[in-house]
């Protein structure tokens, strides 16, 4: 529409003035040509720019200017010219409604696209995990076990080593898919003995991460509810996330498995291993387990005594 109006007003300004009922004067001729040039600018912006919404709104502004000019012209005209101006004004009002709807739709589409892009950016390589387990030990004991960072690799399968570098700082090393290793420095940023520990990675971490673990007394008055919330960026972004999941490294499942092992270590003193999967996960032979076998004579004797 902008292209057609612009070409018409520049190529045949006299015809446009006659149809519109505008006087043949130096002022009207200049105005018609300026409006034609403006429409061509709108057309160029709408056809070439990615920000369609902004250019659609410039058309709405131009429509408002045209309606204001036509209103002044109608007030000073009569007879046949007035009727033509009224007809043109009605057409411009219709165009203005279309332009308003187009501009509003373009703006809404851009906002939705921005939200989706931002969400995609957050979800592409970044992930937030939550998990909970209940351990039949009091909160101070569970807290003390977790706070001793040397204990974490005993139940967090992906951790290889944690080396304390200060009272609240440490260096972490972990395994990643395809035999890769990742490392980072971390610091405890908030802590309440027996209640919670919050941490975050520092510096140029291979895997930027942060999280909080809370130790909440369970309703039975004996056990502890362990609530973990953590977020981190997966190496390789969204592709790394898909590949890791395919090779048995789905992060949510990892965290659930870690807490299950924490519960086993604190309640039984060791990780209980299923005999149905003697070599653990496909991607890494974590916590290798012995193959299933018939009970020994000692096992049978213990069963008979029981």
TrEMBL record:
<dbReference type="InterPro" id="IPR023393">
    <property type="entry name" value="START-like_dom_sf"/>
</dbReference>
<feature type="region of interest" description="Disordered">
    <location>
        <begin position="270"/>
        <end position="306"/>
    </location>
</feature>
<dbReference type="InterPro" id="IPR019587">
    <property type="entry name" value="Polyketide_cyclase/dehydratase"/>
</dbReference>
<feature type="transmembrane region" description="Helical">
    <location>
        <begin position="85"/>
        <end position="104"/>
    </location>
</feature>
<keyword id="KW-1133">Transmembrane helix</keyword>
<keyword id="KW-0472">Membrane</keyword>
<protein>
    <submittedName>
        <fullName>SRPBCC family protein</fullName>
    </submittedName>
</protein>
<dbReference type="Pfam" id="PF10604">
    <property type="entry name" value="Polyketide_cyc2"/>
</dbReference>
<keyword id="KW-0812">Transmembrane</keyword>
<dbReference type="InterPro" id="IPR047137">
    <property type="entry name" value="ORF3"/>
</dbReference>
